[in-house]
Amino acid sequence: MTEPMTPAAPSPRAWPLIPLLFFLVVFLGSGLYYTAAGTDFAFYQIKAPVVAMVAIVLSMLMARLAGQRVNTSVDRLLAGIGHPNLLLMCLVFLLAGAFASVSDSIGSVEATVQLGLTIIPAEWVLPALFLISAFIATAMGTSMGTIAATAPIAAGFAGATELSVPLALGAVVGGAMFGDNLSMISDTTIASTRSQGVSLKDKFRVNIWIAVPAAALTVLLLIVLGGGEHQVKAEPFRFALVVPYLLVFGLALSGLNVLAVLIVGIVTAGVTGMVMMPDYTLASMNGAIYTGFEGMFEIMLLSMLIGGLSRLMTDQGGTRWVIERIHGLTRWLRLPLQRAGEVGIALLVVFANVFVANNTVAIVLTGEMARDIANDHGVDLRRSASLLDIFSCVVQGLIPYGAQVLLACSIAKLSPLALIGSIHYCWALAIAGIAAIAINRPRLPLPNKENAEA
Q1: d(CA 238, CA 260)
Q2: What tens digit of pLDDT does each residue of 38-56 get?
Q3: How much is the pLDDT for 391?
Q4: Model confidence over 76-134: pLDDT tens digits?
Q5: CA 231 to CA 286: how far, in whole Å?
Q6: Based on the number of CB atoms within 10 Å of its own CB, is 342 exposed (0-12), middle (13-18) or buried (19 or more)?
Q7: Which of 18, 112, 254, 360 makes the best surface tag, with the fewest CB within 10 Å?
Q8: Which of 377, 317, 307, 306 has the alpha carbon at shortest distance from 347?
Q9: What is residue 56's predicted lDDT score, i.e. its pLDDT?
């Protein structure tokens, strides 16, 4: 079936953004309500896809009042949901969840922790926690899974020594955000690259020049703060259990299609489990894969619904209105055109992330608008993808109601407000991201296909 013809470009107007504003306000309002009620994970009690569906209905009603036929709105909604980039992103979400689940089911996370403790000097507890978390998150593609696996270790270290609990947990959360930001199979990486139409490898090449200096500064700071007097003993582990992570990371860097990378990773992890554990069967692998699918269902469904809502808002002139407001802001700041566009993209995703408290959702919400801003301001789409991921990561690691901070604090029975000041990596990443915009670095030598055609 061919995609319905795109309507003529409408005049910029603000009212089509009301459904999106409704979505954001419900998220923030419900989170504040449940926080006041003392509910755990208060900002995650209201399910985002349900709110997104209500926002879509509201958008279609507003379009009907403006004279558009309901059938036309439905066609445009389906065109947004069925965009090839969006469908590919959803498929990658499923496979990434399956790989993380299968790897976890065979004990790869524990083996990776012990590998890190073996390689890193034992007296560097804080840097070790940061680097181990970074490696696990890079391999698994999930900061939440990394924190769940590593935060208990950090809390145990702090309880057995005089190490500060906020410092130990801050190192874990910072490392998890660093690895998640660079990972080839992270949902934030997938969302940012697909929304901007760039390759995983190109986005990685931009990100690494911004994230690694921030990580290096964090490690140096943790060495100083840790004092080096705490000892941690590594336990025996089987190196073969780490191989699926290393293989996925290497294949992703080689430029192999991400679907092929994840399929190879799933098969490798499953076969490794069956070879090394007699009780791990094909049925066990099947169950782990489906568990991974289930874990990605919400973000996959939300991505599809937000894709449809974005198309409706764009057709009604809402997206163009946002872009013109950002144009006005950047003219007021008197910034060069490209730098102004990058500031606008950063502010856009920061604003969304503060409201929805989820970096992947923030990227999905703002991805299409960010791409339009990039094209209008001459911003390399590889840089816009990187900025979306970086600044959503910064906010997600510093808001006291974000899932990562809440999970770490629930494990260690610590106040979120006591932790966010110790997540040094996110503060350093904010500085590095702002500096990258200010000095217009890094610059990649060759534009990607999308930029060449823009």
Answers
A1: 26
A2: 887 776 788 878 888 999 9
A3: 94
A4: 889 888 877 678 778 877 887 788 789 888 888 778 767 766 776 656 778 888 988 88
A5: 40
A6: buried
A7: 254
A8: 377
A9: 93
Domain-located, residue 7: no
Is residue 185 assigned to a domain? yes
For the chain, give the number of residues.
454
Residue 292's domain spans which residues? 16-453
104 class by beta-carbon count within 10 Å (0-12 exposed, 13-18 middle, 19+ buried): buried
pLDDT of residue 447 exceeding 80: no
Confidence of residue 234 (pLDDT cuts 50, 70, 90): low
Residue 281 confidence class, pLDDT cut points 50, 70, 90: very high
Burial of 445 (0-12, 13-18, 19+ CB in 10 A): exposed
Confidence at residue 213, expressed as pLDDT on a 0 to 100 scale = 93
Domain-located, residue 160: yes
- Taking the whole predicted model, whether its pTM rises above 0.90 is answered as no
Query: Tokens at residue 247, please?
Result: 């293989």
Q: Decide if pLDDT at 57 tops 90.
A: yes
Q: Are 25 and 35 in contact (CB under 8 A)?
A: no
Take residue 148 and report the two structure tokens written for it: 């769940």
Q: If pLDDT is split at 50, 70 and 90, which confidence band does 338 have?
A: confident
Domain assignment present for 5: no
pLDDT the model gives residue 289: 93
For residue 125, give the nearest of 167, 86, 72 by alpha carbon. Answer: 167
| Cα–Cα nearest to 154, from 142, 144, 166 | 166
Distance CA 386, CA 77 (A): 28
Indicate the number of domains in the chain: 1
Interatomic CA distance for residues 316 and 296, integer angstroms: 31
